[in-house]
């Protein structure tokens, strides 16, 4: 259990986020920038195609979707015969750590974040759609999250994650992802926010060092697609 003082901090931050009192007129927390214009684009994804290729001809899988409760994603996955668990990790980052990315080093808040979003028994999931959520985590939070995912994923299961293709990007857009088919998705820019650290192929291989394999897909757009096998 969290100390009463820490629980009260979380309550105040959550209430403030809900009321919008601490947010600028454009929406979002002070260090987030809303997009100039909300635009939804249709995009082919080799990573998404590879993810579904790996689970083809199998039904009854448990899939974790970190894009939030998207009806399009729920419909697509359940129509394939799978069970969906949805979490809005980007929103949860703001609620758990507030506007300051430096708070992501706070051990108590990291524990709160993990229990809020990943409170499942070991071996619960057969696949995870992480989308671009991990790139907004600092090293301490990222390592703790990946360690928890390793526990929750079944052997030979797959994770799909996106990262900015720029190794030195100090900030990047976060997106809302909706699945159209097994290789196509709709992407809507959510806001611009600081990246948690530098991400390149070598660093990502270290992040997923416990996993069996890491595969990268090059794209013409600003996202690096990564398939990770447990």
In short:
The chain has helices at residues 4-19, 46-54, 71-79, 89-97, 107-117, 139-152, 201-207; strands at 40-44, 62-65, 83-86, 125-131, 153-164, 171-181, 184-194, 213-217, 223-229. With 230 residues, it is α/β, with parallel strands linked by helices.
Give an account of the 3D structure.
- The chain is α/β, with parallel strands linked by helices.
- The protein has a domain at 38-89 and 123-229: Rossmann fold (3-Layer(aba) Sandwich).
- Helix content is 33%, strand content 29%.
- The protein has 7 helices and 9 strands.
- The chain has helices spanning 4-19, 46-54, 71-79, 89-97, 107-117, 139-152, 201-207, and strands spanning 40-44, 62-65, 83-86, 125-131, 153-164, 171-181, 184-194, 213-217, 223-229.
- Helix 4 runs antiparallel to helix 5 (107-117).
- The longest helix has 16 residues, at 4-19.
Secondary structure blueprint with pairings:
Elements: H1 4-19, E1 40-44, H2 46-54, E2 62-65, H3 71-79, E3 83-86, H4 89-97, H5 107-117, E4 125-131, H6 139-152, E5 153-164, E6 171-181, E7 184-194, H7 201-207, E8 213-217, E9 223-229
Parallel strand pairs: 2-3, 2-4, 4-5
Antiparallel strand pairs: 1-7, 5-9, 6-7, 8-9
Could you list some keywords that capture this structure?
alpha/beta, 29% strand, Rossmann fold, three-stranded antiparallel β-sheet, six-stranded mixed β-sheet, 230 residues
In whole angstroms, the N-to-C terminal distance is 30 Å
Rg, please? 17 Å
**Number of E-state strands:** 9
Elements, N to C (H/E): HEHEHEHHEHEEEHEE
- Spans of 5+ residues with little confidence (pLDDT < 50)? 5-30
The CATH homologous superfamily of the domain at 38-89 and 123-229 corresponds to Vaccinia Virus protein VP39
Number of helical elements:
7
Major sheet strand order:
3-2-4-5-9-8
Q: Tell me the β content.
A: 25-35%
Structural class comes to: alpha/beta
CATH class membership of the domain at 38-89 and 123-229? Alpha Beta
- The global form is globular
CATH architecture of the domain at 38-89 and 123-229: 3-Layer(aba) Sandwich
Helix content: 25-40%
């Amino acid at each position: 259990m969290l100390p009463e003082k820490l629980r009260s901090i979380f309550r105040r931050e959550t209430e403030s986020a809900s009321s919008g009192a601490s947010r600028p007129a454009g929406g979002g927390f002070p260090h987030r920038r809303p997009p100039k214009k909300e635009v939804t684009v249709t995009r082919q994804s080799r990573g998404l195609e590879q993810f579904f290729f790996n689970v083809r001809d199998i039904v009854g899988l448990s899939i974790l979707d970190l894009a939030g409760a998207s009806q399009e994603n729920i419909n697509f996955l359940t129509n394939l015969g799978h069970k969906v668990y949805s979490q809005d990790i980007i929103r949860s980052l703001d609620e758990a750590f507030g506007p300051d990315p430096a708070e992501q080093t706070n051990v108590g808040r990291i524990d709160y974040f993990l229990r809020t979003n990943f409170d499942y028994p070991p071996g619960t999931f057969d696949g995870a759609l992480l989308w671009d959520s991990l790139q907004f985590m600092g090293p301490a939070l990222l390592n703790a999250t990946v360690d928890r995912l390793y526990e929750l994923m079944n052997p030979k299961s797959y994770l799909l994650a996106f990262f900015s293709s720029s190794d030195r990007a100090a900030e990047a857009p976060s997106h809302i992802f909706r699945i159209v088919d097994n290789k196509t998705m709709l992407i809507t820019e959510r806001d611009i926010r600081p990246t948690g650290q530098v991400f390149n192929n070598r660093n990502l291989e270290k992040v997923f060092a416990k996993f069996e394999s890491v595969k990268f897909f090059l794209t013409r757009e600003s996202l690096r697609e990564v398939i990770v096998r447990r």
